[in-house]
């Protein structure tokens, strides 16, 4: 190994040590879970403990809701029809002292009028308040508001990355379009429009690098973004 490589390695190790020393006390476990367990992570090492208890209560409630949803689906089979199926994957995608994002994907058949494949149902928690994140407080004021008959700034950012067909662009580029959002420590902001079933084909999931949306984030939270802790477990990545 040459001197330059040694220096780069030393710098990389130093960065890891700094990150670990400042944030190692906050942990999420398990990092991943699948049906039938469908276990959402629990947080440890977050202070004050009262906030940690609130965060874990939110996670426990969502876990219970998803387990009930799976049971209801599997119990709803019709006579002489294939048995319903329900599969869910839960992955800790982003963890920092301020935010926890859970990437949840669900697929099911036989319990609704149409099969659902890889439905995104994420959960992001404000770790300072112990409750689900209000994305309008995460971004700067006006980021979700449309100033004309066209879409809001978040819509324009999404369309810039989505490269939709003209037809889908017209469907998404409207003032009232809402979005499904979560953070991923390896890719940035995950975003897709929350569209009705009839136009779901236009709900393309895209990732936006941190560098391209950071200036739209509430200044009080911008410093939190580079501090996100990438889950070390390689099984935490979906196929």
What does this structure look like?
- This protein has 239 residues and is of the alpha+beta class.
- It has two domains: 25-132, Heat Shock Protein 90, CATH 3.30.565; 134-228.
- It has seven helices and eleven strands.
- It has helices at residues 3-23, 49-74, 135-138, 153-162, 166-172, 210-213, 219-222; strands at residues 27-29, 32-34, 42-44, 85-95, 99-109, 116-120, 123-126, 131-132, 179-184, 188-193, 206-208.
- The longest helix has 26 residues, at 49-74.
- Mean pLDDT is 85; it is low at 2-23 and 230-239.
Secondary structure elements and their pairing?
Blueprint: H1 3-23, E1 27-29, E2 32-34, E3 42-44, H2 49-74, E4 85-95, E5 99-109, E6 116-120, E7 123-126, E8 131-132, H3 135-138, H4 153-162, H5 166-172, E9 179-184, E10 188-193, E11 206-208, H6 210-213, H7 219-222
Antiparallel strand pairs: 1-3, 2-4, 4-5, 5-6, 5-7, 7-8, 9-10, 10-11
In short:
The chain is an alpha+beta fold.
Number of strands: 11
- C-alpha end-to-end distance: 34 Å
- Indicate the CATH class of the largest domain: Alpha Beta
Percent of residues in helices comes to 25-40%
List low-confidence stretches: 2-23, 230-239
* Overall 3D shape: flat
The name of the CATH architecture of the largest domain is 2-Layer Sandwich
Estimated share of beta-strand residues:
15-25%
Elements, N to C (H/E) = HEEEHEEEEEHHHEEEHH
Please describe the biggest sheet, giving its number of strands, its sense, and whether it closes into a barrel: 6 strands, antiparallel
Quickly count the helices. 7
